[in-house]
Specification:
Low-confidence stretches of chain B: none
Structural class of chain B: mainly beta
Mean pLDDT of chain B: 95
Number of helices of chain B: 0
Order of helices and strands of chain A: EEEEEEEEEEE
Number of helices of chain A: 0
Largest sheet of chain B: 5 strands, antiparallel
Low-confidence stretches of chain A: none
Number of strands of chain B: 10
Largest sheet of chain A: 7 strands, mixed
Oligomer: heterodimer
Largest interface: A-B, 27 and 23 residues
Chain lengths: 113, 112
């Protein structure tokens, strides 16, 4: 069974640009969560989706948004990029809305110059 | 708000030794207490988890001890191996969804 896929794996953008990251969950999984990982702040929750509905949102500015499609694939978008947005963005999928195990993808490394 | 505090930040253990990582939490709404393991270049992966109605759970060389009254839980790695060298995160989950609240992480190095 294929794992969680995230594309692209690496991305370099400049300040002010916007970026879209993609996450394909494990087949059959309906829940997708996003996390930002930085050396200074660690792993922080961005948002979670279940069956196309956003269930929870973390404490991030409105420049961070996401959505989930009917096939459970998810995208997150960051507009007006700032240097501090440089991070590893991780996506996790699970079968149910309140899971015991979540499966993480390898992440997308975003660098903002 | 620092809801989950993990210690130590880094740990160096000799092969065959015991590694102990601690996690303290504030949010009493957490109801599932996993530990995740992350290797460089990879996403975190579930290692072991415990529910609050159990005080201890053992899976192979890995044991979670849970103290509900103290709002603390810990990970014990027995007979630590160089392949255990990784970053470990406690990441309790609440009741409203899949959201995990990660600790700061512990970088474990097991010397051969």
């Amino acid at each position: 069974k294929a794992g969680v896929t995230q594309t692209p794996r690496y991305l370099i953008k400049t300040r002010g640009q916007q970026v879209t990251l993609s996450c394909s969950p494990i087949s059959g999984h309906r829940s997708v969560s996003w996390y930002q990982q930085t050396p200074g702040q660690g792993l922080q929750f961005l948002f979670e989706y279940f069956s196309e509905t956003q269930r929870n949102k973390g404490n991030f500015p409105g420049r961070f948004s996401g959505r989930q499609f009917s096939n459970s694939r998810s995208e997150m978008n960051v507009s007006t990029l700032e240097l501090g947005d440089s991070a590893l963005y991780l996506c996790a999928s699970s079968l149910v809305a309140i899971p015991n195990e979540q499966f993480f993808g390898p992440g997308t490394r975003l660098t903002v110059l | 708000q620092q809801q989950v505090k993990q210690s130590p930040q880094s740990l160096i253990v000799q092969k065959g030794g015991i590694s102990i990582i601690n996690c303290a939490y504030e949010n009493t709404a957490f109801d599932y207490f996993p530990w995740y393991q992350q290797f460089p270049g990879k996403g975190p992966a579930l290692l072991i988890a415990i529910r609050p109605d159990v005080s201890e759970k053992k899976e192979g060389r890995f044991t979670i001890s849970f103290n509900k009254s103290a709002k603390q839980f810990s990970l014990h790695i027995m007979d630590s191996q160089p392949g255990d060298s990784a970053t470990y995160f406690c990441a309790p989950r609440g009741t409203s969804g899949s959201r995990l609240t990660f600790g700061e992480g512990t970088q474990l190095t097991v010397n051969p």
